[in-house]
Amino acid sequence: MFSSFHSVILKEDLCIGCTNCIKRCPTEAIRVRNEKANIIESRCIDCGECIRRCQEHAKDSVSDPIDDIKSFKYKIALPAPSLYSQFGENEDPGKILAALKAIGFDEIFEVSRAADIVSEYTKKIVAESNVKPLLSSSCPAVVRLIQIRFPNLIDNILPIEAPVEIAGTIARKKAAQKLNIDDSDIGTFFISPCPAKVTSVKNPIGSKKSSVDRVISFKEIHPFIVRNLKTCGKPLPFYLSGKGIGWARSGGETNSLGISDYICVDGIENVINILDDIEDERLTGIRFAELLSCTNGCVGGVLAIENSFIARNRIRRLSEKYNSKKYNFKDEFKKYNLSDEDVYLQEKIKPKKINVFGDNFVEAMQKMSKCIEIKEQLPSLDCGACGSPTCQVMAEDIVLGHTTLDDCMVLFKKKYENRSDK
Q: Key word Nucleus present in the record (predicted)?
């Protein structure tokens, strides 16, 4: 059973039906009908590409408001490492964390700490696994993409929680033990650059319930941090792991593994091309693939503020600055009192089947045959003017009764010209 929650939404009053979004959606989840876009929820992976492409700002992302901090007695912020990249070149990470805490949090627990834990587990799995290549599970948009478009590769996905989930688990355990309070009194707030990560908390994959209570976007929290930077006082101590911080940019995860037979791909179209190659067994000699939906990695999230190339460079410099710091995984693991159950996915990831023509085999074959006939009549231009992303999808939509051949602008023009000639 798949939840219907999605962070990505349509603001219908702003939509002009321009079709820019339908041609960029990696799962063909958008149609334009009656001059308005429609998002097919069962296909949406919340990657945010439509938000990025819409010049009318008709696509947006829903996250939790800052005022939700007041809903819990003890509030813990879980900042993504990419947060450091959203401020000036010389802004100290400890100062940024102090400004974040001053918003109203009782504690800060950096997600970069959990990223190092994931790296250690990944090293072990990669060394022992016969599955090649293993695919990173850290980008929820990519995991959902695989569920829908590449279900044959689900077993290749690393069976490990994303760093934010492990960070939430650690933070909750620490607070409950230190303060002797109920878990329900603890609120964990992920500070996120990405709508897919909002959805992954509200509708987790591979676990029954997220360890994170709320998700606040970079865009919402950024002005509060900027304001507090001037008055927050001394910097807070922060996690001095260059590798953990480096997870914010593409290549950061693989860099922490200490292996050479890997591939790192960012940008949703590039990810699709590589997954095609992996599925068709054209990519060999690779043990691990880091796949990130956003260009340049999490610093390129659609809810981020800074230009992704500038942000990536800032993370690179921070990562290099603190790369010499020694990280003792065994000591860190003991300190957090973690078990394997806290790190591994609790449930097997399942494919998300999209049966275009239904589950009845005979009826589906009849509809498929009709679809082929209709497709042969279409111009194969994939222009999107009809409101469907491709001619193939339009043929499917016609069979399903969602549109007609008359909505094809090319055929309509020819039909009009033929009438004029008579």
A: no
